[in-house]
TrEMBL record:
<protein>
    <submittedName>
        <fullName>Uncharacterized protein</fullName>
    </submittedName>
</protein>
<dbReference type="InterPro" id="IPR053178">
    <property type="entry name" value="Osmoadaptation_assoc"/>
</dbReference>
Length: 386
């Protein structure tokens, strides 16, 4: 079963990137055989290591090859996640490095992309103490998810966000920045820049949009930074939405809230830009599919500031990056691109300019300590009584 899963993954990936249909079809046949063997083991109640590893391989395979679209993909992923969930108490206690890697991947995928209801079913992920920076970062994503759900509920019912909601967002933002400052020596040094005209991925040039592409000490360091920026980007968009709600429902200081709401959206754009400057490094050929998987989890979020601020060129670049990943054999990247097809069409058909000229642009890495200082001096200035 495990051998068939490994062979299926290899054949399908090779068939896709080489355009070899016979190898692709053979890989699909192996996949179907492996699924049948896995189903038989599950019916017998077997949850051994072969079942675990086969399930993880099938999860990767479903990201690479999902010809039937998002709905079928999600149903397949729900099934494989259900299998993993039954094994998690044993996986977390294991010292096997491969099993620990499985936990890390599932934690981050769940944290960055899941809804609150789904997150609640994965509380076993939090049983292990937060001994590593990655675990602490995951816990902050859980808090982000809870805030995101609350803000979305306020938007849905047309309710009014409170000062407590805004304070919770700012507190979480400070917590994320503090985490980076405290863990910088552990997670790796800040990125440096490639020289003008250099790029680790010649198919994704972006000097004129975001600044020069970033270079990292390692892919692990890149992952930490991308997750750090993604967390801050989501929180800034939550602050933006919260302030907008307070403004439209009759908060007294309308002009002040409007200004701060826009500032938060601009900051979200800044963090999105940092992620986009990191994507060429992650997609360089020598990193194979690892870098692609690191980037994919944030791509749902990274386009949101560009949509809000009508940054057509940046939005289009993200769409192109997803299509480039699809050409690399990652089907889900094409699906993520298609999710915003209507937005892209509206951008192309509209003559409407950007919401505003960019007011924050720094080609160099801005120190999180500086950002934390600015946040500490500016947060908490809006109250319901202002």
């Amino acid at each position: 079963m495990l051998e068939k899963a490994i062979s299926a993954l290899s054949c399908i990936y090779l068939g896709k990137i080489k355009g070899d249909d016979p190898i692709l079809r053979y890989g699909v046949e192996l996949y179907n055989e492996g699924i049948r063997l896995l189903a038989n083991k599950l019916r017998r109640g077997t949850l051994d290591d072969d079942v675990l590893y086969t399930t993880v391989i099938f999860q990767v395979l479903e990201i690479i090859h999902c010809p039937d679209g998002l709905r079928v993909l999600l149903s397949h992923k729900a099934a494989t996640k259900a299998i993993l969930r039954r094994s998690y108490s044993n996986i977390i206690a294991s010292t096997n490095p491969f099993k620990k890697a499985i936990v890390d991947i599932e934690k981050l995928a769940t944290a960055v992309t899941s809804s609150k209801g789904y997150m609640n079913s994965w509380q076993s992920l939090l049983l292990a103490p937060a001994a590593r920076p990655l675990d602490e970062l995951f816990e902050m994503y859980v808090s982000i998810n809870e805030l995101f759900t609350k803000v979305e509920e306020i938007k849905y019912i047309g309710g009014q966000a409170s000062h407590a909601d805004l304070s919770a967002c700012h507190s979480l933002k400070q917590r994320i920045l503090t985490w980076y400052i405290e863990k910088e020596g552990t997670i790796g040094q800040p990125p440096t820049q490639y020289l003008y005209g250099e790029s680790p991925c010649a198919d994704l040039l972006s000097n004129g949009l975001f600044g020069l592409p970033y270079r990292f000490q390692s892919m692990s360091t890149a992952r930490y930074h991308i997750l750090f920026w993604t967390a801050l980007m989501i929180v800034e968009m939550l602050i933006h939405v919260t302030l907008t709600s307070m403004r439209t429902v009759g908060n007294q200081d309308l002009s002040k809230n409007t200004h701060l709401s826009h500032e938060s959206c601009i900051m979200a754009e800044y963090y999105a830009d940092q992620i986009c400057r990191s994507i060429p490094y992650c997609l360089q050929e020598k990193l194979s599919s690892w870098g692609t998987h690191v980037v994919l989890s944030c791509m749902v979020h990274v386009k949101k500031p560009y949509i809000s601020l009508r940054r057509k060129a940046k939005f289009r670049w993200c769409q192109d990056a997803l299509q480039f990943m699809k050409k690399r054999g990652i089907d889900i990247a094409g699906i993520l691109s298609d999710l915003n097809r209507d937005t892209q069409r509206a951008f192309e058909e509209s003559n409407m300019g950007q919401a505003t000229e960019m007011i924050l642009r720094d080609d160099l890495f801005i120190s999180p300590l500086k950002l934390l200082t600015l946040e500490s001096s500016s947060s908490g200035t809006i109250t319901d009584e202002d």
